[in-house]
Amino acid sequence: MITRFSICISRYCSNSQKQCAYEFNNKSKIKIILISYWQQVPITNKMSRPEHLAPPEIFYNDVEAQKYTQNSRMINIQLEMAERCMELLMLPEDETCLLLDLGCGSGLSGSVAEDSGHVWFGMDISESMLKVAKEREVEGDLLLGDIGDGVPFQPGTFDGAYSVSTLQWLCNADKSSHKPAKRLYTLFSSLLACLGRNARAVFQFYPENVHQTDLVVSQARKAGFFGGLLVDFPDSTKAKKYFLVLMTGGAMPMPPALGTENSQINYTSKREKMTKGRASKLVKKSREWILEKKERRRRQGRTTREDTKYTGRARSGRF
Predict the structure, then answer these.
(1) Tens digits of pLDDT across the chain (319 residues)
(2) Rounded Cα–Cα distance for residues 319 and 317 (Å)
(3) Is the pTM above the cut of 0.70?
(4) How far apart are the first and last CA of the chain?
(5) β-strand pairing of 226-232 with 241-247
(6) Which helix (H) or strand (E) element contains residue 158?
(7) Up-side HSE of residue 189: CA atoms within 13 Å toward CB?
């Protein structure tokens, strides 16, 4: 059976590279061999999501791992997301906590925990990323492992857990034995066991569609977590960020989201959105249309002029 990974090899490799990647047995079935060659080949495509190109342990090879030490844009995004996760964890002030970094990668998010005065333990599936973390001489301990197989720690070990740009990988099946719902439940149930009382877990991730967000939230609640989904800057296309905020000590109010007064997501069907759009459609260039457009720009954080009595007023011809 040809997997998505073998299709990726056929699409992005030359003929000589295919010979290194494939081995044909007597029954003419393709067998994929993970060899050291993949540690030197960048698997990138600007038009596709990373999880669609290859499994994480293959995608994050030596070439991709080095970007997290050389690409300033990627570094700044990782640090910014990690800082937001620290805020949502709501850890006690003036107290050192032991935190679990799921998908720690090169240790960038762990450095944020260090700056906040906490101790962290990192877990990642990519050997190349962990090698970069060791070269950076991070203070946290590192573990090579797949979080989809569960978190192998004693009950009540950690005071909190966080993850940056990792959870969406579990929503894809890289092997025939991988079931996204089962792997997510395994992660959340084992994570719940190793967290202390009243601890929190925060996952920043990039869902592909609403079905993935529903799947993630439902499996977390099935495992016994409280909490839900929080979206920062929901009205902005570029600044929108998804956070799964999980709580162990019972249902508590969700922290406020950035860029809006509403911290909850209202799921509306496509039919309801279309019906509402037809009913409230405004005449273009009218005063109401202009005011609504300006208000939308304010919600997106853009600089907008204040409303006056002259806003939307038609000018005379002699002006």
Answers:
(1) 444 444 444 444 444 344 344 433 443 333 344 434 444 444 444 457 888 888 888 888 888 888 877 888 888 999 999 999 999 999 988 889 999 999 999 899 999 999 888 999 999 999 999 999 998 888 899 999 999 999 999 999 999 999 999 999 999 888 888 899 999 999 999 999 999 988 999 999 999 999 999 999 999 999 999 999 999 999 888 889 999 999 998 878 888 899 875 444 444 444 455 555 544 567 877 888 888 888 877 776 678 888 888 888 877 666 5
(2) 5
(3) no
(4) 73
(5) antiparallel
(6) strand 158-164
(7) 13
